[in-house]
Each structure stands twice: as structure tokens, then as C-alpha cells.
Design the sequence.
């Protein structure tokens, strides 16, 4: 089982990205309300946690579409 290396720049909360991110920017296009490039531009991080059901659905689309499986929701990791 892979170890999840949560990027430190992620906002506190259940949604986060890991260093598996390849910086493809897809999540930033799908859900720019929550995902943006890290300060060094290498990764994407969650800068705001989704709150409403609609926001969580959108973040879920980004998670499913991530080609590197780098987006995670702690609720789903248990
Ligand atoms: S979709 Fe996945 S691999 Fe692409 S930038 Fe977002 S977290 Fe990184």
C-alpha cells in the first residue's frame, strides 16, 4: 500500500493532494475554487476545502479524473 505524502501547502481539512501530483493542472481547470498550483508551481494543492454538497461533488469529479490519483479525501481513506 502506498504511503500518502500530503503536501504541506494544502489547506487544513479532509481534502488534500499528495506528491504523486504530476502538475497536469486538470484539477485546477475542473474546480478552480479549490485547486491551484503550489507556490513553486510543481504540484497542485487544495487551497480551500469544499463545503456544500455541490462543492464536494465537484471536488469528487476532480479526484476521479486526476491521472496520478493524487487527490484524496480523508473520509474515504478510512
Ligand atoms: S489533476 Fe492530479 S495530477 Fe493533475 S494537477 Fe491536479 S492533483 Fe496534480
Sequence:
Amino acid at each position: 500500500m502506498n504511503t500518502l505524502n500530503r503536501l504541506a501547502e494544502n489547506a487544513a481539512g479532509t481534502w488534500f493532494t499528495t506528491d504523486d501530483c504530476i502538475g497536469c493542472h486538470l484539477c485546477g481547470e475542473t474546480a478552480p475554487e479549490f485547486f491551484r498550483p503550489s507556490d513553486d508551481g510543481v504540484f497542485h494543492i487544495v487551497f480551500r476545502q469544499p463545503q456544500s454538497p455541490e462543492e464536494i461533488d465537484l471536488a469528487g469529479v476532480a479526484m476521479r479524473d486526476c491521472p496520478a490519483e493524487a487527490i484524496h479525501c480523508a473520509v474515504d481513506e478510512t
